[in-house]
Amino acid sequence: MKQISEILKKYNIKPHRYIKNGKATIIDTEMGRFVVKKNNKNKKIFDYLKSRSFNYYPKIISDEDEEYEISEYIEELDYPNEQKMLDLINLISLLHNKTTHYKEIDYDDYKQIYEDIKNNIEYLESYYNDIITLIESHIYMSPSEYLLARNISRIFISLNFCKEEIENWYELIKDKTKQRVVVLHNNLDLSHFFKMDSSYLISWDKSKIGIPIFDLYILYKRHALDFDFSEVLRQYEQSYPLQKEERQLFFILIALPPKIDFDKSIYEQTKEISNQMDIMYKTERLISPYYSK
């Protein structure tokens, strides 16, 4: 706490109480509450956001070169998570709108995405073929093995979908000369969004410039079972429509099955497989209307 005390003294902040909250420390003072955490040296992103009239992040009080960052503390409103998610996705569509720019396509980047996904598909096909062969050789299956065996066709259907679509996607982007990029928050989670007099996003440590769908991908992976993402995606695209190749890549990424390791207790393993199957069926329901058209 000594280093934190020294920086607080520099900014004439007199603490009454320290509250540890993950990687951050909340400071109670006569002037109100502040948040102190290690400086991620990402002030250039905030300067850029400010230049684009995007001010939806806590005000930073400390200087850029300080070891610790001091920012205002945002007291969150208590309201339904479903509405909170829609408010979050509206803010992300605004972030992407405000920071959109186009650059020459680096085909090495696209080729890397293509090859990484193809290699992952090939690895997963081999992995699940070996797993199901091993499971079927057992006289008695464990509950987790039985659950996977019952649903293995869904995994291979998803892999076949991704295998076909990654080729279609790569063919589509070959004719592109410009790439649409935005500021990515790159760490989206419902817990990183606050609503008070305005909306606020915190935890910008991983922010960078990139393709807009990666914010959607991270959000989906963390909350796929918590919300109706067809509505979330619809809300996002009302303000920021995805381009064809962007939506196609997003669908490939969320449809790609994870590798399920059998290194947990039977209970935990069964629970994980059940959750992953629920996500895969939910992903199919999200994607299929776009292809039935």
Keywords summarizing the entry:
293 residues, alpha+beta, Phosphorylase Kinase, domain 1, Aminoglycoside 3'-phosphotransferase, Chain: A, domain 2, 2 domains, 4-stranded antiparallel sheet, 3-stranded antiparallel sheet, 54% helix, 15% strand
Describe this structure in words.
With about 290 residues, the chain is an alpha+beta fold. It folds into two domains: about 1-75, Phosphorylase Kinase, domain 1, CATH 3.30.200; about 95-290, Aminoglycoside 3'-phosphotransferase, Chain: A, domain 2, CATH 3.90.1200. It has nine helices and nine strands. It has helices spanning about 1-10, 45-50, 80-100, 105-135, 145-175, 215-225, 230-240, 245-255, 265-290; strands at about 15-20, 25-30, 30-40, 70, 100-105, 180-185, 195, 200, 210. The strands form three sheets. The chain has a four-stranded antiparallel beta sheet, with helices on one face. Strand 1 and strand 2 (about 25-30) form a beta hairpin. Helix 5 packs parallel to helix 9. The relative contact order is 0.12. The mean pLDDT is about 90.
Task: Give me a quick take on this structure.
The protein is α+β, with helices and mostly antiparallel strands and 293 residues long. Helices cover 54% and strands 15% of the residues. Strand 7 and strand 8 form a beta hairpin.
Number of strands: 9
- Biggest pleated sheet: 4 strands, antiparallel
Write the CATH architecture name of the largest domain. Answer: Alpha-Beta Complex
Distance between the termini: 59 Å
Reported by name, the CATH topology of the largest domain is Aminoglycoside 3'-phosphotransferase, Chain: A, domain 2
What is the CA-atom radius of gyration, in angstroms? 23 Å
Approximate strand percentage: 15-25%
SSE order, as H and E? HEEEHEHEHHEEEEHHHH
CATH first level of the largest domain: Alpha Beta
- The count of helical stretches stands at 9
Poorly predicted ranges (pLDDT <50, ≥5 residues)?
Answer: none
